[in-house]
Design brief:
It is built from 15 helices and no strands. The chain is mainly alpha-helical. The protein has one domain: ABC transporter involved in vitamin B12 uptake, BtuC (Orthogonal Bundle), CATH 1.10.3470.10.
């Protein structure tokens, strides 16, 4: 298998890298108070207006980094799940992984555990993601159909949403309910380098573990019997996928809130430019997820609205029509 996908699109990785750098730079410079390149260079050098320097280094830079990190993790997680389950509808949100991670984070917010230690929010988010993945992986090991797995994921997502609704219903004050609801809509606003330090190790570990399973995912595209005949250790692969997606998605959700459809749409956007093997799709999906989420985050800042637009709302509006378009165009290839 050609893990890079270069046999189909030799310029794919250079183009994705350039787009990632460009959208990251735009994320730093664009906003309610645009910052020019010269002002940005001066701020980095420690010169210029201290207000511009504070906006750039304390607000814009962490937000730009988080947009790239969260998008990369959601894109890679979606590609890995679609390869593992051999189903183009698989992604962390559809299978209940993101909602359960969100439930874990909501529990931490509800009980003010973040005040005790900032790592408790991502820890509970990771545990929530693991709780969602365990029954899915058990069903896949028993050879259940992909439709059964999707339905099980929908049931898990419904359970998570019920738990979140219960937390909102029993919120000790209207302000607590508003905080939970605002977080659930998804946003990278007012994030700091503390949030970067929470997300970075989780995302880095998650993506590294998933990319390391590229060959096993390729073998699984032949079915479990075919993968065993090629020497794949399916039990080990399942456990690695379990922890990789749980850690990565849990850490991403803990800092961004609920953001859907990135992991579903991005692999479909990248698949035509690769040889369609799961391993060839992982890294392109990471770059494309980072680009898509960062571009959406720029849009929520520049679109004029009376109330600030939430990132998760915009990704849903963008993701649904894109997914339907690719579903109609490529359904015969799946």
């Amino acid at each position: 298998m050609n893990a890079s996908g270069r046999g189909h699109a030799p310029l794919l990785f250079p183009l994705l890298l350039l787009l990632t750098l460009a959208v990251g730079l735009l994320s730093i410079t664009m906003g309610p108070a645009p910052i020019g390149i010269s002002a940005m260079v001066s701020a980095i050098e420690g010169k210029g207006d201290p207000i511009v320097r504070a906006i750039l280094l304390e607000l814009r830079l962490p937000r730009a980094i988080l947009g790239l990190l969260v998008g990369a993790m959601l894109g890679t997680g979606g590609a890995a799940l679609q390869g593992y389950l051999r189903n183009p509808l698989a992604e962390p949100a559809v299978l209940g992984i993101s909602p359960m991670a969100a439930l874990g984070a909501v529990i931490a917010i509800y009980f003010n555990l973040a005040d005790a230690h900032p790592w408790l929010v991502p820890l509970l988010a990771v545990l929530g993601a693991i709780a969602a993945l365990l029954p899915l992986l058990r069903l896949s090991r028993k050879g259940e159909s992909t439709l059964t797995l999707i339905l099980a994921g929908m049931a898990i997502a419904s359970l998570a949403e019920a738990g979140i609704s219960l937390a909102l219903n029993l919120a000790p004050s209207p302000f607590a309910a508003m905080e939970i609801m605002s977080w659930l809509l998804g946003s990278l606003e007012d994030r700091s380098f503390k949030d970067v330090l929470i997300a970075l190790p989780c995302v880095a570990i998650g993506i590294a573990m998933l990319v390391g399973q590229g060959r096993a995912l390729d073998a699984l595209s032949l079915g479990e019997d075919g993968a065993r005949s090629l020497g794949a250790d399916l039990s080990r692969t399942r456990m690695i996928l379990l922890f990789a997606i749980a850690i990565g998605v849990g850490g991403a959700v803990a800092v961004s809130g609920g953001i859907g459809f990135v992991g579903l749409v991005v692999p479909h956007l990248m698949r035509p430019f690769t040889d369609r093997s799961p391993s060839a799709l992982l890294l392109p999906s990471a770059f494309a997820g980072a680009i898509l989420l960062s571009a959406a985050d720029i849009a929520v800042r520049v679109v004029p609205t009376a109330t600030p637009l939430k990132l998760g709302v915009l990704t849903a509006f963008l993701g649904v029509p894109i997914f339907i378009h690719h579903l109609l165009r490529e359904r015969r290839l799946w």
